[in-house]
Amino acid sequence: MPLKNKKIRIGNGDYIPAEEKGNVAVKTISAEYLKKDEENEYQVTPTGNTILHLAAHYGHSHFAAEVLNITPALLCHQNKKNETALHIVANEGHIEVVHFLLSIEEHYKDKLMRMKDENGAPTLHKAVRSRHEDVASFLVKEDPEFEFPSNKVRETPMYLEAESGLREALVEILNSCKRPTSSTGPLNRTPLHAAVIQEHTDCVRLLLQWNKSLCEELDVGGLNSLHFAALLGLNEIVSDMLGWKKSLAYFPAGSENDRTTAIHIAVGAGKVDILHELLNHCPDCWELLESNGRNALHESILYSQTNV
Fold first, then answer.
1. ANK repeat ranges (predicted)?
2. Model confidence pLDDT, tens digit, residues 127-143
3. By the 8 A CB rule, do 53 and 88 touch?
4. Could you tell me if 205 and 226 lie in one domain?
């Protein structure tokens, strides 16, 4: 919605022009609305946003500068969702305002970047989830000592970057972060699982270069990344994984009472190229049996995969 001639509500019946940025009018408005309640609570919107949150949302760096010049304490003020202005601007992708907010006070920079919203997400999560790769890369560079843990639903920034295919942001966190967290995410899946499932092959290769043992990790269903790559027909990824460790082809998938293998998965899905890849690396894997005693040939007949 165009901002011209629109107004933003600040308090009980109080409004400011939304299109104002950093001129004299804004200085006057900022002083009026921030100084008159100095001894009381800050004036906020119904969702708890201060005037700084609003400036951040619309990308008004000059306006934000004037606000903080009058009331620096607003920098770390949180709304009803526990979001600071930095959370808001990272979500919106206004890189200029991100630079500005983090340049205000070096002493508070790490604290500001690590503050969590109601979902347990620091600022980096916001930038990654909204696919603002430039903001995400910058935030990682600014706090390389932080391990960037998971939010309340177990998503780490690395997991979200892999899932979203944000290659440059993933490169940054792998190269710059001294203690990147690769802990498992939803359904006990690793960042490698996420990249494979979404078929982001460039991110898959980055993660394999960084930590090949992620291939062996199982999700809640008992599937590793090779099993998903076989199911989806990602021939080059299957080749890379088996090139590192052939025995991955023999790893069981599923539960004890419903066990299968990569070759059964490939045959059932009709992925002939994957079948060739598996047999090239492990010629005897066709003899493997699933929990019902069927080999790959039985599987092809069961699922009418005549091409297999």
1. 81-103, 187-209
2. 999 999 999 999 999 99
3. yes
4. no
